[in-house]
User: What shape does this take?
Amino acid sequence: MPMETIAVAGIPFPVSRIALGTWAIGGWMWGGADDRQAIATIHEALELGISLIDTAPVYGFGHSEEVVGQALAGRRDKVAIATKVGLDWKDGKPFRNSSAARIRREIEDSLRRLRTDRIDLYQVHWPDPAVPLDETARVLEDLHREGKVLALGVSNFSVAQMEQFGAVAPLVAVQPPYNLFERAIEADILPWSAAHGLAVLAYGPLCRGLLSGRMNAASQFGRDDLRSADPKFQPPRFAQYLAAVAALEAFATERFGRSVLALAIRWVLDQGPTVALWGARKPEQIAGIDQACGWTLSEADKAEIDRILAAHVTDPVGPEFMAPPGG
Assistant: This one.
């Protein structure tokens, strides 16, 4: 099936509704990096019709951006690059810093690492309670006016924070965690974004691999792996989530002849003006992207999915553990 696309204001061409997420490519919190595999993954994504790549300076402390820049040499104009701003780090530990001075420094670092003269979508990674939102928005609007940034977005912001930011600078996208298991944004962020014309870049649509269908009770995660700190991957919850995935896999196979992974991505795409950020660091991890395109879930299908979740996940938990500390 051909890749579905969505228009994002400011980006000169419609972007793919499945984007490549590159947190794992940076290596940090995912058990190390393999640049050769990462570059092959990015090239494979382009072959499959992906035209939006999402990265951030903090992913490997600059490493993910460097790999993306290397992989896109000679192909830059075919791809929209989304990166982020507002997380600083010291001694391998990130913290929030959205001051104007930090942003001015960070944009130059990102442009250099990505080997480009502009960022298609520049997103504030996390709100910084120590810096007035107006200050952050003003400096980003300056970068937008200067042509270094084509479009502005935010990540992990509340509706109130988006309204405050949008009063100062044009906001076209928001990036929250969103998947079958983590659905808090349905109460506010998702409807608000749809009403205001924002694209919703859903990160973690496979819930850190849980919805890939490739995990089992014996799956283990090292200390340098984000999932070792995620309550979903610890007993007793891990067994509940695995049981839900098994039931979803059976439903996807019987009803659609597709994988649970394709079902999870399709579900996200059917929720509104959404883009699913498909994280991968090996070419084989993006196999099956085409299975998620060109079909839709009915209301009855969605109701059955909800029934499966309620039956198996009796003690659900959100993605709150991922929030970094303030500055």
Remarks:
- The mean pLDDT is 93.
